[in-house]
Amino acid sequence: MSESSTAKRPPTIDDVLRLRAAEPVPPADGEAAAGEAAGDADGGAAPTRIVEIARLAGVSPITVSRALRQPEKVAEAKRRKILEIVERTGYATNPHARALRSGQSNIVAAFVSNLQSQQFCLAVQGCGEVLEPQGYQLMIGQTSYSYAKETTMIQSLREMRPAAVMFTGVIEIEENRRALRALGIPIMETWAYPRDPIDMLVGFSNIDGGRLAAEHFAGRGYRRVAFIGRRSGRGALRLTGFREGARAAGLDIVAELSVDRVGSMLDGRRALGELLARNTAVEAVFCANDLLAAGALLEARRLGMRLPDDIAILGFGHNDVAEELPPGLTTIGIDSRDLGRQAGSLILQRMRGETPDEPTRAVELTLTRRGSS
Amino acid sequence: MSESSTAKRPPTIDDVLRLRAAEPVPPADGEAAAGEAAGDADGGAAPTRIVEIARLAGVSPITVSRALRQPEKVAEAKRRKILEIVERTGYATNPHARALRSGQSNIVAAFVSNLQSQQFCLAVQGCGEVLEPQGYQLMIGQTSYSYAKETTMIQSLREMRPAAVMFTGVIEIEENRRALRALGIPIMETWAYPRDPIDMLVGFSNIDGGRLAAEHFAGRGYRRVAFIGRRSGRGALRLTGFREGARAAGLDIVAELSVDRVGSMLDGRRALGELLARNTAVEAVFCANDLLAAGALLEARRLGMRLPDDIAILGFGHNDVAEELPPGLTTIGIDSRDLGRQAGSLILQRMRGETPDEPTRAVELTLTRRGSS
DNA sequence: TTGTAGGCGTTATCAA
DNA sequence: TTGATAACGCCTACAA
To answer: Which residue, A163, A319, A330, B85, could crosslink A373 as a Cys pair with Cβ 3.0–4.6 Å?
Structure first.
């Protein structure tokens, strides 16, 4: 994009001004409190142990514990008094002591393939919305689409001892699947629809997504179509479905271009350039994700093509920035936040010892048509 | 963007196909292992207590503990043997027991203003890169630019008892600042340069950023300039600097448009439309963040304006998707991942009981010029 | 350099 | 419905 060079992909920097940010030098103040172990703040230090509450309430510690965890087992009056004291003093249970004794952590680990992905983050947010009000905390990690990293993270789960784990994806490596099962905690996979989820699943069929893309193209009257995407993971599934759909509808797949990275507009741009250079008279392109599609769309327009007449572009993933690009990107996707919420509520049920009657769920894929197709 | 309607902001959906994703129904398998407490997996269950390692190594538990935490205090041979056994058996320390006894958690809480922000996520990733190899785990929360949410989260920190906290922002509310100090743990603020950080800071001056914007416009010969951004938080600081710089350079600020949301292309688009409707003969617009700038840029081009001749646009934040938009967005920003790394290493020092000699650091602001200015 | 004794704060278990 | 007792697994303090 930089300058007018079109070949160079890493956007060259035309002009860089450097400025050492220097507001009037701040005194290295504020150090006072931090660093010490037990900051005692403003006098009214909150109690740190359950016995202190017990003393104030005139009951035994275990009763306070019950009032907090199983309120129904404590007499109305006592319970009210205890909770009032807890509230007033700002007492907070020590989660480490609790986890140690009960074997129940309040941490739920969430692994995203890529923290930069809007949709994955939305799913995690949705999951957090359900779990946090119940006192659980999400610990977020990134697998970076790397099996090695995934394996490392799963190892570290053994140390972390979370109450449950969720992934924005499915675990393919058998060894990792075994390791996860061995944790003996609820496991949530998402974003695909494998036959044999490890434990619970809120997913959708990427193959169906690809098929839907082909059907959409067929319905709009395009016949010469192409695919841009990764050849592994979900990209491969979307391609599989796209091929099936194309065959069924009698479309010609004139090219399948593979890219290495996920979420790269530049790769999409380059791939479209390459596709056009092949002179395949392609009419419509399905990109396995929205950022690739955004790159392709920008490149097409840069070359003076009109969408969708000269070429149609279809993305995947409901990325709202990409979809804003004129003339609007048609895209297939799911409601990621809702997926996250569903995942969260299943996890919650499982953590409570209930048995969800439907531990494997499918969410709806939708195609949103805009100007690009 | 939808259809050809230009007024409606929430992109209308032209056409929605629904498809119940239905791969061949998967057997609700995989349930087997999960749900139970102590999954005993494949026979070779890893030891869960330090005594088991001690027994295998023929030493006392405390020696194993030392070999793990303070290896230099254990004789070479014993240490090697112990670590070999730990490695081989896959023993993992129970973090809860450890935290309970030592008072040292291995959890670092990180709060981002918005999980959807590429730059904030990058900073968190950078911080994690430094902390994770040292055995710390990042727990990520979102404050949603809401003081109320911020207060709630800070409350929950009392329960969580992390080893340190980092924010992609600074804490303004005095009550929250007090509450944080009272935690007695290292606190890291970022993304601004206040005079009185709570504890540690890796930041930059948003005022300088605004000033830099004005200077850039002056240098390029624009005189009639405008601002689009929030009137609170960092947006307000950037505006302050922009005003100062404009005054110093003799520029006319012909308009200051405020938006309510952060990270909204639509708001940027609308604001630019409004600005142009005012007929102020504006030559250059500084948008307080890149997504606003992207919206403004798209709107300008939709109206057939050429950049930068008809209008120049300057963003803030180094968002790489926004900056890809033709003709390339000029933007001011920092290296967020590096900021995160610096923050991480300061936090690390503090957690180790060292006293960083420079607990308040400034990172470099850079202006990257592309086609839009 | 290694070990012994004991407690961190909570909750499971059993008894009243 | 409430309480006494003990134990979760580790590490601090002190001793050898």
So the answer is: A330
Q: Which residues make up the interface with nucleic strand D when CB must lie under 7 A?
A: A 59-63, 66, 73-75, 78-79, 97, 100-101; B 48-51, 61-62, 65, 68-69, 93-94, 97-98, 100-102, 104
**Nearest nt to the A100 alpha carbon by C1':** D8
A9 alpha-carbon distance from chain centroid: 28
Q: Scanning every residue of chain B, which has its alpha carbon at the shortest distance from the alpha carbon of A194?
A: B26
From its phi and psi, is residue A277 left (phi > 0), alpha (psi between -120 and 50) or beta? Answer: alpha
Structure tokens at A147: 């099996």
What is the tens place of the pLDDT at every residue in B198-239? 999 999 999 999 999 999 999 999 999 999 999 999 999 999
Alpha-carbon distance B70 to B66, whole Å?
A: 5
pLDDT band at B141 (very low <50, low <70, confident <90, very high): confident
Distance to chain A for B41, nearest Cα, Å: 5
CA of B66 to C1' of D12 (A): 12
Q: Measured between CB atoms, does A16 come within 8 Å of chain B?
A: yes
Q: E strand or H helix at B228, and its extent?
A: strand B224-229
Kindly report the length of chain A: 373
Question: Which tokens hold the place of B327?
Answer: 């003709």
Please answer whether residues A209 and A365 qualify as being in contact, where contact means their C-beta atoms are separated by less than 8 angstroms. Answer: yes
Does A41 reside within a domain?
Answer: no
* Rounded CA–C1' distance between B100 and C6, in angstroms: 14
- My answer on whether B223 and B121 are in the same domain is no
Whether the per-residue pLDDT at B26 is higher than 70: the answer is no
pTM of the model: 0.85
| Closest by CA position to B120, among listed B166, B163, B162 | B166
Which is nearest to A320 in space by CA: B362, B213, B267?
Answer: B267
The helix (H) or strand (E) run that includes residue B354 is none
Question: Hey, is the C-beta of B26 within 8 angstroms of any chain A C-beta?
Answer: yes
Helix, strand, coil abundance in chain A, percent, nearest 5: 45, 15, 40
Q: Do B293 and B148 belong together in one domain?
A: no
Nucleotide nearest to B99 (CA to C1'): D10
> Rounded distance, CA B21 to CA A204, Å?
6
Cα→Cα distances A322→A120, B178, B253, Å:
15, 42, 32
Does residue A35 lie in a domain region? no
- Whether residue B41 has pLDDT greater than 60: no
Per-residue pLDDT band for A44 (boundaries 50, 70, 90) equals low
Mutation to test the A interface, candidates B138, B324, B348, B351, most A Cβ within 10 Å:
B324
Q: Specify which residue's alpha carbon is closest to the C1' of nucleotide C7.
A: B101
Query: Contact B15/A369, CB-based, under 8 Å?
Result: yes
Give the residue numbers spanning the domain of B243. Answer: 206-333
User: Which of chain D's bases lie under 7 Å from a protein CB?
Assistant: 1-5, 7-13
- Residue B189 falls within a domain, yes or no? yes
Contact A201, A166 (CB under 8 A): no
Of B4, B18, B94, the C-alpha closest to B50 is B94
Report the alpha-carbon distance of residue A284 to residue A160 in Å, rounded. Answer: 48
The two three-digit tokens of residue A272, written as one number:
């479209």
- Which chain A residues are within 8 Å of B133, Cβ to Cβ? none
CATH number at residue A347: 3.40.50.2300
Answer yes or no: do B82 and B130 share one domain. Answer: no
In sequence order, the β-bridge partners of residue A157 are none
Q: Which chain B residue is nearest to residue A323, measuring alpha carbons? A: B1
**In whole angstroms, what is the distance from residue A298 CA to residue B257 CA?**
29
| Type of residue found at A185 | I
- B83 touches A: beta carbon within 8 Å: no
Confirm whether A45 is domain-assigned: no
